[in-house]
Amino acid sequence: MCYALFGDEGLAAAVVISSVVQISHFTLGVGCMSGDFSPRQLIKNGPILALIIGAVVLSLGLSLPDPVMKTLSMLGGITLPIMLMLLGRSVAQLSWSDRSAFGRTLMFSAWRPFIGVAVALLVTRIVPLSETETLTMLVQQAMPMAVISYMLTARYKGPADEVAMMILLSMPFSLLVVSGIWWVAN
């Protein structure tokens, strides 16, 4: 999305912002969802280990053998479809009859992109960023709930069905907020 809106500079900023968000999902998010955060957990956390190994390989200028790269590419390529199938299973089983749960879910779905932009505005006031970096931060934080939120909720026995519904319902709100950011920026 950021590449389409802001080009190469937007893509570079989006990769950095996305990396920070993903690290927070697998450190703070796991700590909050499990109720137990310890630095020792980071040693057992696959995505964090992959990030550290990737940073070491990249910083040392090493290149992995072609079979290893192909295997990693295939594993990375199958991850998103598997997550989407699990999400789809939960969405297919949703019950729309509980009006209070639906109202709460709808409220949080609308809240997500707006609070994300509010936090991004606060961060961009504190951290000096270029205009494109600021807009990229705003767009990134206006995105709908991430599928990884569903995966963590399901893993730690949280309200997975409600989170699945929030992912679905937060998309139109996100589209409205991102359209507003684009309209104000231009």
From TrEMBL:
Compartment list: Membrane
Main location: membrane
Transmembrane feature ranges: 12-34, 46-65, 71-88, 109-128, 164-185
Organism in which the protein naturally occurs: Oceanobacter antarcticus
Protein's UniProt name: AEC family transporter
Membrane topology qualifier: Multi-pass membrane protein
Pfam family of the protein (one): Mem_trans
Keyword flag Transmembrane: yes
InterPro entries: Mem_transp_PIN-like
This protein's UniProt keywords: Cell membrane, Membrane, Transmembrane, Transmembrane helix, Transport
